[in-house]
């Protein structure tokens, strides 16, 4: 697993609401670049194996959403959740979760995750290639701190959730403030 100093340059394919489209599905495609998301900002990022999966839906995303104001108070500009899912799945998951503050960023092709060195094979679960669970603070595109779950391996029989959680990130930010 490679350790990198800066987030990789990629283009994310996202969907944004556009009322000028009209109809029951007023959304259009919009490309978002790594530069656009991270330049000049301090961003908390957490990545997880998949939308609608148990730990991701009951603990990982909800706790980051719950602590959002605490992150903002510590100088974080944005909290981003990345998953190797398409924009449609991420939108519906966010809607189902009531995510209003955490930005759900689809890494549909897994390019960002692969370039981060975090792409793992979860074929043993029928998931294919997904992200290993991790979190990080990105300051103006540079990785300030990263928390990677232990046991990184293809077809890992477990899904560790010990250090990429919102409370660990909050404790780090409080200590770094």
Give the domain tally. 1
The largest sheet has its strands arranged as 5-4-3-8-9
Approximate helicity band: 25-40%
Let me know the CATH homologous superfamily: Glutaredoxin
Sequence of secondary-structure elements = EEHEHHEHEHEEEEH
Question: Do you know the CATH architecture?
Answer: 3-Layer(aba) Sandwich
Characterization of this structure:
It is a single chain. With 177 residues, the chain is of the alpha/beta class. It has a single domain (11-16, 27-171), classed as Glutaredoxin, CATH 3.40.30.10. 29% of the residues lie in helices and 28% in strands. The strands form three sheets. It has a five-stranded mixed sheet with strand order 5-4-3-8-9. It has a two-stranded antiparallel ribbon with strand order 1-2. Strand 6 (119-121) and strand 7 (129-131) form a beta hairpin. The longest helix has 13 residues, at 54-66. It is globular and about 45 Å long. The chain starts with 10 loop residues before the first strand and ends with a helix. The mean pLDDT is 93. The active site is at 56 (cysteine sulfenic acid (-soh) intermediate). It comes from Trichormus variabilis SAG 1403-4b. Belongs to the peroxiredoxin family. Prx5 subfamily. One of its GO terms (molecular function) is thioredoxin peroxidase activity. It holds the Pfam family Redoxin.
List the keywords.
PRX5-like; 9 strands; single chain; five-stranded mixed sheet; alpha/beta; antioxidant; 177 residues; Glutaredoxin
């Amino acid at each position: 697993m490679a350790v990198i100093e800066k987030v990789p340059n990629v283009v994310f394919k996202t969907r944004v609401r556009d009322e000028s489209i009209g109809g029951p599905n007023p959304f259009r495609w919009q490309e978002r670049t790594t530069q656009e998301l991270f330049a000049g900002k301090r961003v908390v990022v957490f990545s997880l194996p998949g939308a609608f999966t148990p730990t991701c839906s009951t603990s990982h995303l909800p706790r980051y959403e719950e602590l959002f104001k605490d992150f903002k108070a510590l100088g974080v500009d944005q909290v981003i959740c990345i998953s190797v899912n398409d924009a449609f799945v991420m939108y519906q998951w966010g809607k189902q979760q009531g995510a209003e503050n955490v930005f759900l960023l689809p890494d549909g092709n897994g390019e960002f995750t692969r370039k981060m060195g975090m792409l793992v094979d979860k074929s043993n679960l029928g998931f294919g290639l997904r992200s290993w669970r991790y979190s990080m603070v990105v300051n103006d595109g540079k990785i300030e701190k990263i928390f990677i779950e232990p046991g990184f391996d293809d077809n890992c029989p477990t899904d560790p959730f010990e250090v990429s959680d919102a409370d660990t990130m909050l404790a780090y930010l409080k200590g770094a403030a």
